[in-house]
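SAMPLE LOG
Freezer: B-3
Tube label: C17
Construct: single chain, 563 aa
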Amino acid sequence: MKVVIVGGVAGGATAAARLRRLDETAEIVVFERSGFVSYANCGLPYYIGGVIEDQAELTLQTPESFYERFRVQMKVRHEVTAIDRTAKTVTVRNLDTGEVFTESYDKLLLSPGAKPTQPALPGVGLDRLFTLRTVEDTLRIHRFVEEQRPRSVVLAGGGFIGLELAENLRDRGLEVTIVQRPKQLMTPFDADMAALIHREVRAHGVRLALGHTVEGFAEADGGVQVLLKDEQPLQADMVILAIGVTPDSRLAADAGLELGLKGSILVNDRMQTSDPDIYAVGDAVQVNHFVTGQPALIALAGPANKQGRIAADNIAGGDSRYKGSQGSSVLKIFSLTAAATGLNEGAARRAGLDTEAVVLSPMNHAGYYPGGRVMTMKVLFEKGTGKLLGAQIVGSDGVDKRIDVLATAIRAGMTAADLTELDLAYAPPYSSAKDPVNMAGYMMENLLTGKVRQFRLEDLAALPRDGSVTLLDTRTPGEYRRGHADGFINLPLDELRERLGELDPAKPVYVMCQSGLRSYLACRILAQHGFTCYNFAGGYRFYEAVTTDRCQSDQAFACGMDK
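STRUCTURE (predicted):
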């Protein structure tokens, strides 16, 4: 059997290695149009920033090392230009020599990845305008920064690549501006959680120009102008397009294979295209979202590698199935870590799901152990069933641990009640006896069982200030004086039982504290004295961080007060 693989990064390289492990006799040929194989896309910004110093560290294998270990022909600088499904051949161009030839196959695997989105705008071909997708792109940017010593850069796009570049270029001393049409960075996050990311990047000197439409680029004053609709242009020494990626499906389309969302390659759960002898994996294919079951495009390294393994299994005669992607991701943003898995609230609404979310601000480990830091967690669940749908976490240490637990729980179809029963490792330097994941489960369970009702940030402005409801802040007088939500009166939790007579039981009570803990306790007291009450999700700390650029305290007491 002869297998031809188009693309030698991530899914393609994984498929080639897996196939060799399954079939020692197969002839395997990989064509990669760049000069590198098996490289780490996610590490590219860190080479530009100098965190990764050795260029060789970007590649996990070379064509030579791959052949020595797997006896797979890795032909770099070779571009597949056409597929003849009837003859079962591909047309290949050697980019160094210009030679064009055909290569036969019994099975064909497409792993072309995605290409940087390049809008059809004036000036996209300027010398000082860059994209970042390949090692060659990285070397070009690195060389420009080293040789030209730019003082400023505009990044068009605030996703994963844009934010990684922002941090690394700031570390090199450049003035950095991020411009994009969406009004928030990192669209996998809800706007309230993205606000925490905005605060962090602004604190490190990154200028955000959000909600602006880029209309083109022009040379000016020895640099580049980014032309904006109805706004003055942005001026910089260089521009990097990090708008996003588009499935690179031209080969598949020209060959008449069925396409899906945004021109992606349509595959079944065996990673098979509409031609049974052609498979496709990675960023170019349409998948099903694991949570909703609906078609999705999820361009991440983890799913691509899993798909490559599954395709190889099936090419070798097995029957492996891909059950969908849920978009688990994590990102370092200066001193913060931001992570997400599953659905955000916007995606859940579009999917027609009846959902609710809890927001909590736990410490990453026991509060009495030195060095603890607060993280903000938002966990989404389905009303009625309590099924977990998604999670977002922004913080420092311990974020990756919790998002992985929650990603596993979603994959396992667990509910809020199941989270309360998870037996997670505990020692003071690493966690609390009630881990943040357990706490999220307790909070969701309380909502599902009616022990507490809540109101959210988006409900706050609409609350009447005419005296028809009671707006209650249960923090200490000192905390209250330092800042409080409009219209809320102060009645500390520890005085509540003795001062119940000051409250009208006929009026609904909306309760807030610093983190949501004391207000929850207040709600339990009030409910048992006949009051109808609602707890504010996330607490004043979350409210202040989302609605202002003020920094949250990164330490807290067990009672929910900030240190």
